[in-house]
Recover the amino acids of this structure.
């Protein structure tokens, strides 16, 4: 890049500067391609230009500037308990003022979760059983052969529909 004849020396071209501004201010909202288009690059090659601009081997100054800005932004983006509770309270108050009591109630619940008033617990129990244990349980559930066969027949009909009767030839009878 040449700054020959310019009054002020700049590190970036106007398009690069606009790309950096768009990419860091809209991080997570726009793709790199969209940022390149907004910076003035041709939509047909914007994907390639964005990849080049984000490649530290091709554009180390651009990548360095983006990284420096994102470090500053992370401090703003990071959430702490107080900020989070303040935002939930603000949303709750706005919702209550609009008569949106469901939203207000949800915000109250979320505030309680942030402060540890609610604990979600899930428990998964597994037990391996042997064939003998399984047979014993089946015999306990179905004491007679007839009951076992009736249940299996009804389950088969439920899954596959009624069984079709096969007609025998008169000669075989």
């Amino acid at each position: 890049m040449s700054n020959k004849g310019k009054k002020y020396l700049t590190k970036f071209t106007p398009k690069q500067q606009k790309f950096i501004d768009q990419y860091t201010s809209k991080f997570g909202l726009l793709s790199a391609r969209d940022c390149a288009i907004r910076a003035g690059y041709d939509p047909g090659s914007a994907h390639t230009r964005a990849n080049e601009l984000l490649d530290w081997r091709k554009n180390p100054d651009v990548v360095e500037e983006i990284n420096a800005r994102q470090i500053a932004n992370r401090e703003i983006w990071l959430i702490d308990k107080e900020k989070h509770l303040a935002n939930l309270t603000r949303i709750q108050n706005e919702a209550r003022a609009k008569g949106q009591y469901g939203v207000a109630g949800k915000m109250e619940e979320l505030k309680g979760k942030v402060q540890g008033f609610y604990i979600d617990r899930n428990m998964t129990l597994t037990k391996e059983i042997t064939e003998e244990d399984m047979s014993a349980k089946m015999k306990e559930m179905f004491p007679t052969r007839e009951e076992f066969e009736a249940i299996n027949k009804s389950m088969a009909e439920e899954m596959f529909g009624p069984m079709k009767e096969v007609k025998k030839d008169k000669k075989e009878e």
Q: What stands out?
A: Residues 93 and 99 are 10 Å apart (CA to CA). The chain has a mean pLDDT of 86. The chain has three domains: 14-77, 81-114, 131-160. Residues 81-114 form one domain.
